[in-house]
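sanity check this fold:
=====
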Amino acid sequence: MTTALHPREDTGLAGRLARSAAERTSGAGLRTSEVAAWLAERRAAHRFAVTRIPFADLEGWSFAPHTGNLRHRSGRFFTVEGLSAQVGEGPEGRWEQPIIRQPEVGILGILAKEFDGVLHFLMQAKMEPGNPNLLQLSPTVQATRSNYTKVHRGAAVKYVDHFTRPGRGRVLADVLQSEHGSWFLHKSNRNMLVETDEEVPADPDFVWLTLGQIGELLHADNLVNMDARTVLACTPVAFAERSAQLSDMMLLSWFTGERSRHETRMTSIALNEVTGWEQDPWSIRRPDGRYFEVVSVGVEAGSREVASWTQPMFEPTGRGVIAFVVQRFDGLPHLLAHARVEGGFLDTVEIGPTVQCVPDNHPLPGGAGRPPFLDLVLEAKPERVLYEAVHSEEGGRFLNAESHCLVVEPETPLGSELPPGYCWLTPGQLAALARHGHYVNVQARTLLSAMTTGAVAW
């Protein structure tokens, strides 16, 4: 019996992506300098409004009588429940909190197509209620299963067939990735890059851009949204690396050891059983004002599948910092990665950046509980910053959630002794790990997207 065999790897893809990354000023659609104005024009073309409302004004949402869980009457979308976490001994290793449970797997997909021999990516001007500026550059498709199966009885999700119907194109990347482990319980999205040769109908809210153009736009604050960044992090670009401080097998062994050494116990509890939090008509929050609040909003969005709705959201109480510290070994850049435990992860840990925190929650420099390397990152001289931007977190569930994103190369190299849970890996090794589900967390993928698109000035 004869069967058709396929090459195990597309050896030409890395070169095609490199050509796309080299085109940074213009492409088949807009010039890079025109994208911000195009987004402003799309913002003006539709009515967008987000209003804070009390829980009593939520339509279709209610607190369950016995558990207090905040849920939708359809039983779909998501619920706000409670989580009891134990990750170690002592009070720092135990806590309770509200958390979002959204078991369905969504699709984050970017459609690719070649124009004049250069790969372009179809990006969307999409409104999300949590974005500080509402409209940002998003993937071609950004939809939960409830959205693209039209539970909301709204319009169809445009271009979704390219990602849900087999055979519509060549898959360049396809991986299940986690979302924010501190706010979501076991949430995964399917991150996809699909190339098509078909004619793609034009739409005024979509634009074709090269990989390099998107890399340039990642330097702007709050322009490329989180869902686009996580897909771009999965792009199978090639990095010019032949060696590393740890071999790939040594790195995998370190990561497996980190997953094995942590004993964690995550237990779902009723929202009305969560201790250390209080509820009033407008919010669920901690009395000390730390971490985040659960709030509600009313939304009007003329360009969305449904024109208006209400929903709960999580709103952090301060701006986050996510940063990789860089150090060169024999001239090759390495990133200081942290194996992080977060309450919502499917497994015990995922690889995160060197620093991932909200500094306002740790107010005393050098104080107890201050995250390692935070002060080093915050005090870095401008000339030692290889990449910097403020990016919004996921705007569909989180309100005004922003992170100051940095890649920093300190003037003085770090010593050989690292705190437990930290290790050096190369950008190429991080990118390779991101092609596996639940290895690299969403904050590290934001910074990785700046590397896969060429935005980091090595």
